[in-house]
Amino acid sequence: MKNCKNRNREAARFGITRTSLFACLSVGIICISLNACKKPASTQPDFAWERASVYFLLTDRFCNGDTTNDHSYGRITDYGSERLNASTFHGGDYVGLLQKIQEGYFRDLGVDVVWLTDPYEQIHGWTTGSGIVNDFPHYGYHGYYPLDYTQMDKNYGTVQEFRAVVDALHGQGIRVMLGANINDVGYPTFIDAKEQDYAPHAAAIDTEWRKERGAEYMQFLSDAYSWPEWFTTEWLRQPLSAEALACDPYRYYHETLYGLPDILTEKNEPVSIPLFLRRKWEREGNANDAWTWPEMKALRQDTTIAPSDYQIRWIAAWVEEFGIDGYRCDVVEFVHPERWAQLYEACNQALYRWRLKHPESAASNWTDPIMFTGDHEDAYITYLPEYQHVGFSSMVNMLFPKDGNLHTIAAIWQAYADSLSAHDDWYPFSYLNNAYFRDAAMDRMADCATTFLLAPGAVQIFYGDEIARLQSEARLNVDAAQAFRSDMDWSRLEQQQELWQHYAKLLAIRRQHPAIGSGKQTMIDSLTVLRTYPAEAPQDRLIIRLRPNANSADSVFVANHLGNRVVELISGNTLPVSNGFVCLPASDTNVAILTPAR
Questions:
Q1: Vertex 105 angle, CA 447 and 550, to 5°
Q2: CA distance 104 to 100
Q3: CA distances to 519, 580, 594 from 522, in Å
Q4: Residue 465 contacts residue 493 (beta carbons within 8 Å)
């Protein structure tokens, strides 16, 4: 197996800032039953999604284990500069990811869940980066531009390579998440139009990217809804004018985000599968069997279902084939809630069937239903019953503080803990950095890790935060956020060992002590909190002491919460309790975590 490439290039962020929140979605009336997922007792009784530690990575940017698939579909990867290469495919694949799993990277770091970018075959061509400016070619390396849900993108690897990744993670007790998007499909591109022959003038289209083609590409997009062989208006809504949207009380359902082809999710009338897809599958025959599987190929038949029904069948088929444990659902407020309910039910049934069919896997004994979290613009920790009722247990929290401020975080934790205890099956799902935002204080990543990994609820680590992954020259593009998705530079693992060890230590404590993620919190003072779990008759008790001046000795009031002797979990030292106080020696860490000595 080839070693992963160490790169300094960084790349790309899809899209632009979203429009404002939709405050009033109607509640779906579909009732979700979880009884279908009941099975014998779990082999991991201590796992709970509400306190999970999730590692989110972009497959294409993580580790290149097989260079032979780097130019699949004739994709160009190098346009001559780091800035122009911001959104090309960089080579990361399942072979490289499996290598890191087998080396124990995620197990040693201490995460519970690995969240991978969408594996579906992406558009083969590129769109104009930064819109009309077109300062770089934007490919679908991130998984947000699906062309064909029924097979794997060849840049990532084969079905068997993906299966090996999921099975290896499951074998280490780690769950697997993917992304699900039923709002839209990928853009049409010059290259795809020519390959699939779905535009009237496709044969004359120049497939090479040039900077001056921005305006021409926009004109190309404007014609797309009239093409009878592509996704027709039976599948897609026509873009509305700004004036029409402004007067539309349901604008968030009817808006075509970023000009993406928007699926008619409210439609219930049957449609045929687009002609270009049927021709594509006929042309491929059995040549692409390494990137799909027989049960999925059987779902390529026209039937009497609506556009969203096809998408839901195809996405649920990935759960049944591989045992996917959770989905992050994209732009949830722009999709009719009953469709999310339908997808949730379909995925739960698929996961139940996978567990029955794979008794050899430790994951077959897990009893939790599939987890749905959502990407909702500006979501916080607020309880959203209209989404819980259709299957969601959280929205990705975009507002977790990113400054690593040890003086203020305890009060913020209190709000998170109170939110967690107030609602069954609804919890914060927080991140510092992710694919849309890279705004954590990179010069204070150790303090950021402390405030973040000790927060109540689930937490999502963005790949490379644990080694302070750098940005690149892509930040100089008009869409500067492209640099958020740089390649994982494995040479930094040795350079940033102190930071990596801090992450690993906190994650180990978080995993061993459910009071961290699920506990009730009581403020002792502005820098000190008590966490207990469960709320009634606690079995796990911790006191977290934040130490902005850790180089000095510190005296912490713990009252009688922890007994006469405590263990400080960061250092492993056993310390006495005297008159309700514990004396902490000077330290090179910024936090102390105290628990009763056994």
A1: 20
A2: 6
A3: 10, 16, 14
A4: no
Give Cα separations from 371 to 115, 234, 438 (angstroms): 12, 31, 25
AA letter at 396 = V
List Cα–Cα distances, 445 to 139, 321, 461, 492, 590, in angstroms: 30, 38, 12, 14, 12
Q: 427: closest CA among 457, 388, 391?
A: 457
SS3 content of the chain, % helix, strand, coil (to 5): 35, 15, 50
Q: What pTM, to 2 d.p., does this model score?
A: 0.91
Residue 120: what are its φ and ψ, rounded to 5°? -65, 150
- At 310-336, the pLDDT tens digits run 999 999 999 999 999 999 999 999 999
What the block records as the tokens of 155 is: 């840049």
Q: CA–CA separation, 432 vs 430, rounded Å?
A: 7
Angle between helices 307-322 and 159-171 in degrees, nearest 10? 60
- Specify the 3-state DSSP secondary structure of 61: helix
What are the b/e assignments for 167-204, b being 16+ CB within 10 Å? bbbbeeebbbbbbbbbbbbbbbbbbbbbbbebbeebee
Q: Summarize the confidence of residues 187-206 as an average pLDDT.
A: 81
CB 469 within 8 A of CB 490: no
Amino acid residing at 35: N
For the segment 81-85, the average pLDDT, to the nearest whole number, is: 91
Instruction: Round the CA-based radius of gyration of the chain to a whole number and report it.
Output: 25
Q: Cβ(302)–Cβ(256) under 8 Å?
A: no
The mean-pLDDT minimum among 139-148, 203-212, 236-245, 402-411 falls in: 203-212
CB half-sphere exposure, 261, CA atoms < 13 A: 25
